[in-house]
Amino acid sequence: MNVPLLDLGPQYRALKTEIDAVVLEVLASTQYVMGPKVDALEDEVAEYSGTKHAVGVTSGTDALLMVLMGLNVGPGDIVLSTPYTFFATAGTIARLNATPAFVDIDPQTFNLDPAKLQQWFDENPDKHAQVKAIMPVHLFGQCADMDAILAVANQYGVPVIEDAAQAIGAIYPGKDGERNAGAMGLAGCFSFFPSKNLGCVGDGGMVVTNDDAFADTLRRLRNHGMEPKYYHSMIGGNFRLDPLQAAVLSVKLPHLDGWHEQRRVNATHYDEAFTGTALQGPHLAYERRHHIYNQYTLTLPEGSDRDAFRAHLSERGIGHDVYYPMSLHEQECFEYLGYTQGDFPVSEAISHSTVALPIYPDLTEDMRDSVIEAVLGFEF
Q: Which residues contact 272 (CB under 8 A, 6 or more apart)?
């Protein structure tokens, strides 16, 4: 049986009547920039994430970029983050001519390691004043250890920006109770890229925050720093969320928790099938209900031939991918940072030993069984 890594067709067909109706409503309204659909989604996402404000933007990448701009990040500044993530996390820092400084990841969760974060500050006392932000990533739908990260950040008076692009709806069980991804730092950044658990029909993103003044800054930045019309207090950009995308997302949002739960069901079946083998599914740092499984990433045994395993899956029609095949510090465009191979050994090891399997909520039992059969049919 052919099983794609992701198939958005079933989701669209299930919601087709509602989605088509709201798209036509936007077209008929002739309100094609901002407007009530964007306002409504912002209110809905703020409530869902447990924050006071939500600011719709053009993409998850622009959400990160705009938050950094709101912090006046620029030349001479440092932003600490992880080398094991999608390119946008570090790319947005570099676009502002600031320096991405990497901190290695936890070998189980693949999220930024708080102990390594503390170690960076211990080893770089001369650079403390340059650090403008810490940007942890809630990778694959599970929150980083925010209590520990925030403790380090507070010690040095540095704001935390949550890259929650893959984690809307993920929950962190912190010392002060459960909180939603994006609601713990100064700001949280979401992506609505179609492959995300909550995806639109193009590009879209959102920034959430509890800081009134910062929210006001973000709203001005997304519209060329303009308030009122044609008066510019700062230099921003065109980061406005399209109302067509907002309308579609408002239709999908009430279904999101149900989709999360089906992903957990699929993950549970995979975990049970791979228990007792040399394969390792995603590590649960907390309870399963806290994880939203944007990806289900399988860690292969040490010394495995990943290319041969991938060829085996492809021959059996099983969709899969590698997130991510090269750590950011190894990317050609970041050679100027001066890192070398071996500087972040955990990130490097994980980038060479993982494969993502289909996890989307519309997998049938037969499709899931086909994935399991193909995986277990390979001799490691």
A: none
pLDDT the model gives residue 301: 96
DSSP notation for 218-257: HHHHTBTTBSSTT-BSS---B-BPPHHHHHHHHHHGGGHH
* Amino acid 86: pLDDT: 97
Give me the amino acid identity at 378: F
Paired tokens of 255? 């279904």
161 with 67: CB under 8 angstroms? Answer: yes
Question: Residue 163 belongs to what H/E stretch?
Answer: strand 161-163
Q: Is 176 helix (H, G, I), strand (E, B) or coil?
A: coil
Dig out the tokens for 282 from the structure: 């995603």
Indicate the residue type of 226.
Answer: M
DSSP 134-146: EE-B-GGG----H
Cβ neighbours of residue 174 closer than 8 Å, sequence gap 6 or more: 146, 147, 184
Strand-pair partners of 280 = 299
Whole-Å CA distances, 130 to 54, 122, 328, 335, 337: 28, 14, 21, 21, 16
CA distance 34 to 27: 13
pLDDT mean by block of 10 residues, the chain; 380 residues? 96 98 97 97 98 98 98 98 98 98 98 98 98 98 98 98 98 96 98 98 98 98 94 96 98 98 98 96 97 98 96 98 97 97 97 98 97 96
Query: Is the pTM above the cut of 0.90?
Result: yes
How far is 29 from 31, CA to CA, in rounded Å? 5
In a 13 Å sphere around the CA of 364, the CA atoms on its Cβ side amount to 7
User: Cβ(94)–Cβ(334) under 8 Å?
Assistant: yes
All domains of the chain in start order, with CATH = 9-254 (3.40.640.10), 256-376 (3.90.1150.10)
pLDDT at 32: 95
Give the tokens for residue 58: 């053009």
